[in-house]
Amino acid sequence: MAAHASNEGSTPSYTVPGMSTAEGGSVIQLLRMRLHALNDLALTLKHVHWNVIGPHFIAVHEMLDPQVDAVREMIDNTAERISTLGGSPWGTPGVLVAERTWHDYTLGRAEAIEHLGALDVVYTGVIEDHRKAVKATDSSDLVTQDLLIEHLRKLELFQWFVRAHIESGGGKLATSPHDSESAAAEKAAGQARGKP
């Protein structure tokens, strides 16, 4: 782990034309956390794919693989942007765990509806932080901003796919924006059983 620590917060020796190395370093740090979030999301989606059970198993199981593939492409694009800016992308599990600001996914083998409730919370966190990164690149790096906006188009679409399973006929989500994964899972399961 010592090798990556020396790169943390450092200014690259070069960056793209039209940006200062300080600006490049700032965007690299921002993208570093987006890279961690996307790597974590891809692993979480695959974890759910393997651990989902119940009557909606096949629908959810098959819905998740295209999401995993799309998120993996986002990961690759993010890492390549970091390199383009003169940085070094760190995609190892140890660095991700050491630097992330969120907890590990909490559900194991569970009903599809429970996982979907929890995934709604996961997607909300990733999307909110991506939107903050978009705002942060508003004046410094429109190319990175464009990349993040493209990610958001897909991430928000995928969250809609998830939410379609946990939305009532009246258009109300079983989860709330401030739920933990376990609380969201419980609420989604309760709604599926007809409990408010």
Automatic annotation (TrEMBL):
Region (Disordered) residue spans: 171-196
InterPro entries: DPS_DNA-bd (IPR002177), DPS_DNA-bd_CS (IPR023188), Ferritin-like (IPR012347), Ferritin-like_SF (IPR009078), Ferritin_DPS_dom (IPR008331)
Biased composition (Low complexity): 182-196
Keywords, ordered alphabetically: DNA-binding
Protein name: Starvation-inducible DNA-binding protein
Residues covered by the Ferritin/DPS domain: 29-167
GO MF, any single term: DNA binding
Sequence similarity: Belongs to the Dps family.
A Pfam family reported for this protein in Swiss-Prot or TrEMBL: Ferritin
Provenance organism: Streptomyces qinglanensis
